[in-house]
Amino acid sequence: MDAKRGEGGKAEPPIEIFLSIIDPRLDGMVRRALREAGHRSYPVPGGLAGWKIIEQLGPPILIMEIPEGDLGQISLLERIERNRKTRAIPVLVFTKDLRLEFRLRGVYEYFHDYKAIARCMETVEEVIGRIHGRRKGSSAPMLKMEDYKALEDVIHVKIGLTLKRERVKRVEEAVRRRMSALNLDSFEEYISRLRHGEVENGEWKRLIPALTVEETSFFRTTDHFWALRELAIPSLLQRKVRGEPIRVWCAGCSSGEEAYSVAMALRECGFDTKTHPIQVIATDINERLLEKARETGYTKRAVRKIPAPLLKKYFARVGDLYYPEASIRRSVVFQNFNLQNPASSFRELFPLPVDAVFCRNVVIYFRKVTIQRLVESFYSVLAEKGYLFLGYSETLYKFRHRFQTLFWRETFFYQKRPAGEEPTPPDVRSAASPTLDPAREEKAPDTDTKPPIEIDQPSEPTSPAPSIPERIAMGADAPDPYVLMAAGDNSGAEALFEDGENPSWESLIGRAYACVMARKLEAAGGFLEQILARSDVSPEAYYISGLINQSKGKRPMAKADYERAIFLDRKFYPAHVQLGELNAGMGWSEVAIRCFRNAIDCIPTSGTEYLVTLEGVFPTHRAKEILEDAILEMEEANS
Known about the structure:
Layout: E1 4-5, E2 11-12, E3 16-20, H1 24-36, E4 40-43, H2 47-57, E5 62-65, H3 71-82, E6 91-94, E7 109-111, H4 117-132, H5 145-159, H6 168-182, H7 187-195, H8 203-211, H9 222-237, E8 246-251, H10 257-267, E9 278-284, H11 287-295, H12 308-314, E10 315-318, E11 321-324, H13 326-331, E12 332-336, H14 343-349, E13 354-359, H15 368-381, E14 382-390, E15 403-408, E16 411-416, E17 453-454, H16 481-487, H17 490-497, H18 505-517, H19 521-534, H20 539-551, H21 555-568, H22 573-585, H23 589-602, E18 610-613, E19 616-619, H24 620-638
Parallel strand pairs: 3-4, 3-5, 5-6, 6-7, 8-9, 8-13, 9-12, 13-14
Antiparallel strand pairs: 1-2, 10-11, 14-16, 15-16, 15-17, 18-19
Helix pairs in contact: 2-3, 5-7, 6-8, 9-10, 16-17, 17-18, 18-19, 18-20, 19-20, 20-21, 20-22, 21-22, 22-23, 23-24
């Protein structure tokens, strides 16, 4: 095939576009469209085999399909995005699985309609234009992929952010406006100016508003504010002397909604603010947003999630805008601060420790090295037993041993652990979900004395098992037996599972789990026999059998049991987890990683369930964090 002609008739080398498409009809349509446009196509398989080809050859463009529930294709995409060599490849994705939209944030473009071939070809031409640095129908050059990569690197070094590929057009437009204002002709020259400029002033202050996400709202993730009000602050007040303020840092505060929500939640705690003044320090790198937070009122849409009594109590309406009243404004101090600053800058910003840090939906845009350094800085500025609130999709990466993870109501957060202190067995208490709306306060149960569930495990098994605090009332408010197993009280859990001479299915499963955790394998086998007598096609039965065999050192038999459980129910995530642990222990890390990814995809995203493994019992959201960390560690070891 002849080379294509670019601007001015200049010959350009043909583009070979890689395809990883499962559906034969879609594959045929894409191939035909590419051929008619004068491009070559090269098929690659899905999963690990496709990954090895892509890593070795580094295609200029990849078009892939992710059928619903296809874990191999999801794994392929994730490998491409994580690898330093391949993450610059523009990826176009066809998928009908609407649940994947969040996962596809990093791809260049995606299409939910399999008939969107024309739009796909337009995007292909746009990407090719970037590869050759030309804009279709215009003499103006485009931001090449290598320039975008250079821009991404300097932005990461200066402010820690990772640019998302789907925002390339927005970033290019912003850069072009700045280049025009500065009379610059090349992207290289502008990137050089950024590289040698100071973030605190000059060109960075004009570019940053185009790079940072401004999405926020009042009382976003309400349970965090309830936990601050009902648990964190009462606990902190017990350790404070008269006149000592309550200090909270909102990092990445955007236009102030979160900071003012924190201030309102603190005011609603009911303590005397003259005895303990409220200080909310709100920081962001975007000076324009900070100016808005200091000066501007909020629209009716912006305040729609504020409970009506709080809106009336703490806001004044002027025309169509709502302004925080004076006492709330005085409680909040807005400052410009770059979370990429060295640790010494954090100590300068906070010469006195803070009681709580809110940094939610911020670190998801950072690379893991930056996240680890940032969490270390949070730890350094937090007061003893201070609290850290992150977004639900964010974790502490490898710094979790310095924090106690707390699960309370429908949310989780973290408490600073004193230096050298080991994880402790949990306090347990169940409670109903409350509201921050004062109008509904009388209907909420009295929860002032109810502690959270602490879900970190002891570093080593202890014997005898720790006792559950006596203050836990049994009966209507009895703890979940799975929570008792998480605490190490397997005997107590087994007792709660008992239900008479004709035990229920749930009772038999629970007692078998409790016996396995207590290493009472003969008793566990007895319950397993009763389970199999009722159903020999139960994934739980084969999973329990696998746990018993693995505890006895019979790894091949355990592996077969876990595989049978998955055969019966491919979404039975405990078997995926334990099969991964088994393979990891045998040194088969790639197989273990695949098993862990399968488990993560199958773990429910709502509600609180408990995962029973030979390593411990964990709430499912905690299990996801552990699996993600395990995957990262194995991938780093293999790289």
